[in-house]
Write a structure and sequence with these properties.
about 475 residues; alpha+beta; 9-stranded mixed beta sheet; 7-stranded antiparallel beta sheet
């Protein structure tokens, strides 16, 4: 058999081999403008959505601006939305097919790693007032030391009133911080210990005040002065902390990163970037053949537990209400059929290949920034424990949808097999019987207070989600 020519080898490679593409290099001038415009809109959203409650409120406002109405509204609308405990929100667009025949579901989560206040947080020590915290989700504790923090959340009073608190984001607001020991004295306290032992959770206390109550006598006058300030402004007393949800998050706006402004740095990319891409997709998609559902949930960072996590039954409740809204019977069989015949994407981020730490990645199966949305067939750790593993037929269908829509995408896992791992909401939605796969942008410095993502990957994610919603029924 004659040897192939160089041209024949090149043609064969283009036909058969898998080649990664750059979103930016594949984009025309119009698309390049939209990449930056979409990033600007997303950054504005990220600045407003510092907590899951703030995210739900912001999404509700965006939904109304884009022609969506509350699910219980009597009028006809482009689509409908409903919130659950102010930490979960659904957005639905009717399709030509009945809800009982399945939906296209885009799921993502709104919670991000942070510091929560304990039930009895306020104390005084050496004429300084502090708040005790309990970290939420997977963090590196040293990331949260010696940096300005804002407090956001609600305090529910005994009389039933709910008070919102937002301190630290406005220029004239005070900020808060967790102290760190100075390098001159940290040799034994930190320097000789493993990283996991050097930074203790019980030392992550937020400095909140330092002026004593103006009184001749009394104990813990700094603490009392702080309580007095809180009572005067918000009407709360110390016992009210027991029924509060207050989160300490990094102060500051999302920022353009790099001289070319190609990247976005900010708090909460995981997973608000997928949530926002899903919003843009359901707002912009043409009239779908199959009904579209964007499901944005809470508690993913701690295993999707509780009433507002993906393990809850709120999805079944919402589908029953949706069936009634669209004229079908809200019975068990219809709800179950809707779930088991749905196709879904679990929108969640992947760990991008970091050139400074190549040893934690398996390069041939790593996600790279700027190469488009990352399709992750299975998650979990070790031997695929705690994984959702999409079936081959579904993965083939979804990549076909993306290829037809000319979406730039890549397939990857997260890290070496025994290096670590992680889970998403996919496995909990998969338990309902639907076909589902993970797909979202790759991040650098994931779970840090300042995560990094490529603007072109956000655009690719939006394109992929939109194509998924617009694809014809199987």
């Amino acid at each position: 058999m004659a040897k192939l020519t160089e041209k024949q080898v090149e043609d064969l490679s283009q036909k058969l081999a898998l080649e990664s593409k750059s979103v930016w290099e594949e984009a025309d001038q119009e698309a390049r403008k939209e990449i930056f415009a979409l990033a600007d809109r997303y950054m504005e959203f990220l600045d407003k959505a510092k907590t899951e409650r703030m995210a739900v409120q912001t999404i509700r406002e965006l939904a109304e601006k884009n022609g969506f109405a509350p699910l219980d509204a009597k009028k006809n609308a482009k689509g409908y939305f409903a919130a659950y405990h102010e930490k979960v929100i659904f957005l639905f667009r009717p399709g030509k097919k009945p809800v009982s025949q399945g939906l296209r579901i885009l799921g993502a989560h709104l919670d991000s790693p942070r510091l929560d206040l304990k039930g009895k947080p306020l104390y005084e020590d050496q004429d300084l007032a502090f708040l005790k915290t309990h970290y939420y989700g997977g963090i590196k504790k040293y990331h949260w030391l010696s940096r300005p923090l804002a407090l956001h959340g609600v305090v529910c009073l005994e009389n039933g009133e709910t008070v919102e608190i937002h301190i630290g984001e406005d220029r004239d607001d005070p900020v808060f911080t967790v102290l760190d020991v100075l390098p001159h004295l940290s040799r034994n306290a930190q320097g000789k210990k493993k990283v996991a032992d050097a930074f203790e959770a019980e030392r992550m206390n937020i400095l909140i005040g330092g002026l004593p109550l103006d009184a001749e006598k009394g104990k813990e006058k700094v603490k009392l002065a702080v309580l007095q300030l809180l009572h005067e402004k918000y009407g709360i007393k110390e016992e009210d902390f027991t029924s509060a949800e207050l989160e300490a998050v990094p102060v500051g706006r999302a920022r353009h990163v790099g001289l070319d402004r190609s990247l976005i740095g900010g708090y909460g990319h995981d997973d608000r970037c997928c949530a926002y891409a899903a919003l843009e997709a359901i707002f912009a998609a043409t009239e779908p053949e199959v009904g579209s559902l964007v499901l944005l949930v809470d508690k993913e960072e701690i295993g999707s537990e509780g009433a507002t996590g993906a393990q809850s039954l709120f999805l079944e409740l919402f589908l029953a209400e949706l069936l009634e809204k669209t004229g079908e019977k809200a019975e068990y069989l219809n709800v179950t059929k809707a779930l088991t015949t749905s196709r879904a994407i679990s929108g969640d981020v992947s760990g991008g290949f970091d050139p400074d730490y190549p040893e934690v990645h398996e390069k041939r199966n790593a996600a790279f920034l700027g190469k488009g949305i990352t399709l992750t067939k299975y998650t979990g750790s070790g031997g695929k424990y705690s994984a959702s593993d999409a079936n081959a037929e579904y993965v083939a269908w979804i990549r076909g949808v993306w290829n037809q829509a000319e979406v730039v995408w890549q397939a990857a896992g997260m890290g070496k097999i025994d290096e670590g791992g992680g889970g998403t909401i996919a496995k909990f939605l998969a338990k309902r019987g639907m076909e589902i796969v993970d797909a979202g942008p790759a991040l650098l410095a994931m779970h840090a207070p300042f995560e990094i993502m490529h603007k072109s990957d956000l655009y690719s994610t939006y394109q992929a989600y939109k194509a998924f919603l617009e694809a014809k029924a199987k």
